[in-house]
Amino acid sequence: MHDVALFIPCYVDQFYPQVGMATATLLERLGCKVHFPEDQTCCGQPMANAGSTDAAAPLAERFLRIFEPFPYVVCPSGSCVSMVRHHYRDLLPGRTVDAVGKRTFELCEFLVDILGIQSIPGRFPHRVGLHQSCHALRELRLGSGSERVVPRFNKVRTLLASLEGITLVELTRPDECCGFGGVFSVEEEAVSCAMGKDRIADHLQAGTEVLTGVDVSCLMHLDGLVRRDRQPLRVRHVAEILAGASG
Amino acid sequence: MSAHADRAAPFVANDARMHWHDKAVWYVRGNRDRAAASVPEWETLRELAAQVKAHTLSRLAEYLEAFEQNALRLGAQVHWAADAAEHNAIILSILEARGTRKLVKSKSMLTEECHLNDFLAARGVEVVDTDLGERIVQLAREAPSHIVLPAIHKKKEEIGELFHHFLGTEAGASDPKYLTEAARGHLREKFLAAEVGLTGVNFAIAETGGVVVCTNEGNADLGTSLPAVHIASMGVEKLIPRAADLGLFLRLLARSGTGQPITTYTSHFHGPRPGSELHIVIVDNGRSALLSSETHRRSLSCIRCGACMNTCPVFRRSGGHSYDATVPGPIGSVLAPARDAGRYASLPFASSLCGSCSDVCPVKIDLHHQLFLWRRELSRLGLTPLPKRVASRMGSFVLRRRWLYALLGWSARVLGRMLPGRLLRWRINPWVRQRELPPMPKESFRAQWRKRRV
């Protein structure tokens, strides 16, 4: 049995508790012993992306202290995982950050790479559109990506495709950014929303009923646009689909 | 709102035009994908090219000296320019020595960077850009909006209008073939009248002293064959060590930029033609300062293919002019702050950091990471907006205190549920202009988790 510490990003903790619960449920169902270190708050990504290293560094230091004791750290957000794995070394020069970084995983990545799972027993008879969150795709390499000339693979799609009755739709631009981008979403509001609306239009033409992805931040942005424009789409995190289908 | 955002918003506001631009540029990205996929060893080529460039930059001074010696041996004249002013003065002196007031130019982003056209025009020299896209923007008195597709922001109807006004084409004509023929006829006269032709340089080969120019229209070849004097302007970073390295870069350049296996013309200049002159102007203009920066040195590897622009979801929706820099898009947003951090402080933030640029870059510049690092430097220099710095500090203060974080999270959820929708959609908050806030749950995850445990 794997001891797993849940890393629940701040805004998921406060605004999307159902995603955290689905993550915990799924991991437990797959035989993990799940811990939630309550001292955790935020990995520091918002401050780091704003360029404020001084504000982000203490949060990175805090994160490492809290999660250092655990053999695995699992998080339902690719972007926050990438922050820990790839950017902490820029924030904390001289500090050994790789030990925790190497043990910190995005949920689907953990299921496929560490637990060795390729399929989830369960049923989800819907047309599902997968939004490929950029940091999960291009920094964590959860999939091959349309830019690189490498053998095609996609860990998230593999897991989703294993569900009975599911139809994964084909998009015209399979991995274009949704335009969230943290501080970008408000600082460059016009471009950010245009990017999001274009993604949604692509899903609508493909017949997506449920739009999913591994990053709650992208989904929060897309769902905000979907609800304002009253588009006929539901937005769900991949953990909610996998946990719900297998329950 | 940052400067780039201010310029991007009006471009986005014209929805039909924005989507037309997005599709036109995305089409080129699609061509690039197919061309790259046709080369099974593509990723190996990228890695090799990155290494050749890194190696060359690590010994740039030696390679520059070797290049100069070999170019001189071939009979070229070599000039060194520390900055744009020196570059422009050298060009003027070559024109004056020849006693001419006419210059035909093929595409050169370096001369755009040096604002050569304005400099020469102010001194009575007629400069004619001979690349079709460049000529279009020159007639429109605009800057190129893309380094490979300078007039990609212009519709054919607008070009028709411009040509009607300047070249006397039929009013209302917008057939691309007709307009291109008209430009061709107009430019032919300019070529024949010119005594000096200027080109950029794609690659300069240290081992041979030759320069290589890649174009699609053949204008560089006319501009160097008809006039008796050829000036080749190059940045110091254009060096490659050996002729044998050229194939690697030629395979990557056009495939990345336009999706062609190779540009229509790849012209090699090894010394002047008999009876003519070849001047090579080697320009620094801030490049050696960039070379000394351990963080941003890699951006000098850029071969100016334009792939990062074509793939950038922000560039496609905000247009090249929104960057207000010689080189727009991701690489431009990395290069411009090195030139003038204050003026271009908003550019590293004009990105969602999606990373697509880093994955298309044929020389593997870690573009989105470079943008991330620039944000840090700009913040340290105090060049990011004060509210952003204050918000980061306040956020950090709260997030270092679990109880305060939980309290504020709770308050946000309570307020979010209680306040009337009208107030929540108060449009002073940029989030809610076009988006809803997330529905506020009663309890946080940690509260639910605690309950489940007991």
Structural account:
The complex is a heterodimer of chains A (247) and B (454). Chain A is an alpha/beta fold and 247 residues long. Chain A folds into two domains: 3-114, no CATH class; 127-246, no CATH class. Chain A has 13 helices and eight strands. Chain A has helices at residues 10-15, 17-29, 45-49, 53-67, 78-91, 98-103, 107-114, 134-139, 155-161, 184-187, 189-206, 216-228, 238-246; strands at residues 3-6, 33-35, 72-75, 104-106, 127-130, 167-168, 210-213, 234-237. In chain A, the strands form two sheets. Chain A has a four-stranded parallel sheet with strand order 2-1-3-4, sandwiched between helices. Chain A has a four-stranded parallel sheet with strand order 6-5-7-8, sandwiched between helices. In chain A, strand 7 (210-213), helix 12 and strand 8 form a beta-alpha-beta unit. The two termini of chain A are 20 Å apart. With 454 residues, chain B is α/β, with parallel strands linked by helices. Chain B has three domains: 3-9 and 289-380, Fumarate Reductase Iron-sulfur Protein, Chain B, domain 2 (Orthogonal Bundle); 39-285, NagB/RpiA/CoA transferase-like (Rossmann fold), CATH 3.40.50.10420; 397-453, no CATH class. In chain B, 53% of the residues lie in helices and 10% in strands. Chain B is built from 23 helices and ten strands. Chain B has a six-stranded parallel sheet with strand order 1-10-7-4-2-3, sandwiched between helices. Chain B has a four-stranded mixed sheet with strand order 8-5-6-9. In chain B, helix 2 (15-37) runs antiparallel to helix 12 and helix 3 (42-58) crosses helix 12. The longest helix of chain B is centred in the N-terminal third of the chain and has 23 residues, at 15-37. Chain B is globular and about 90 Å long.
